[in-house]
Backbone:
């Protein structure tokens, strides 16, 4: 009688509907300033969760770009609205503080806990098939819709071709040049 009848999990998708995005952001804001800022940083930069969790206040305060040094350096532009939110969020923090600190100790928020809180907000907002890569894809999808610049996204996401990037964000087409300072989700 049996057999495995589990359905295949849906792939993480970008959040294409702006009303869904607004509901998700409201859920984040209800949780805490930290969670809201984390979600907005990921949503508006295309940064990986693991990269954001390793940031300190000095990495973002007064900067127009975030530089992540791994095997190579990666740069994420910070547009005006995010810079203002970061300035307010970090106003009472020291330069060496973790940008997203754990409430259970002196270190950064852990990836599994951050993932859980972001997903919980998506569930409460009624967003299906959400995962932390959904935020990178959402950034890419909406940025592409606004600019048409697939090459910028390809480089930002470190992908091998424009077609891979277009598939990743769920669209088809070609594009422009760089992140507009007024772009905001």
Residues:
């Amino acid at each position: 009688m049996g057999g495995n009848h589990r359905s295949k999990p849906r792939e993480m998708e970008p959040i294409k509907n702006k009303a869904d995005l607004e509901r998700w952001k409201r859920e984040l804001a209800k949780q805490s300033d930290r969670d809201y800022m984390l979600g907005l940083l990921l949503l508006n930069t295309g940064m990986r969760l693991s990269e954001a969790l390793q940031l300190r206040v000095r990495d973002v305060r007064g900067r127009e770009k975030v530089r992540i040094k791994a095997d190579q350096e990666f740069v994420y532009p910070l547009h005006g609205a995010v810079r203002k939110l970061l300035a307010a969020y970090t106003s009472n923090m020291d330069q060496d503080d973790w940008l997203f600190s754990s409430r259970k100790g002196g270190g950064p928020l852990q990836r599994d806990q951050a993932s859980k809180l972001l997903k919980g907000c998506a569930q409460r907002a009624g967003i299906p098939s959400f995962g932390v890569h959904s935020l990178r894809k959402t950034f890419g999808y909406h940025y592409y819709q606004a600019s048409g610049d697939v090459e910028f996204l390809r480089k930002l996401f470190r992908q091998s071709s424009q077609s891979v990037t277009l598939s990743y964000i769920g669209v088809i087409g070609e594009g422009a040049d760089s992140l507009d300072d007024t772009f905001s989700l």
Q: What stands out?
A: The radius of gyration is 17 Å. The chain has a mean pLDDT of 88. Strands lie at 65-69, 73-77.
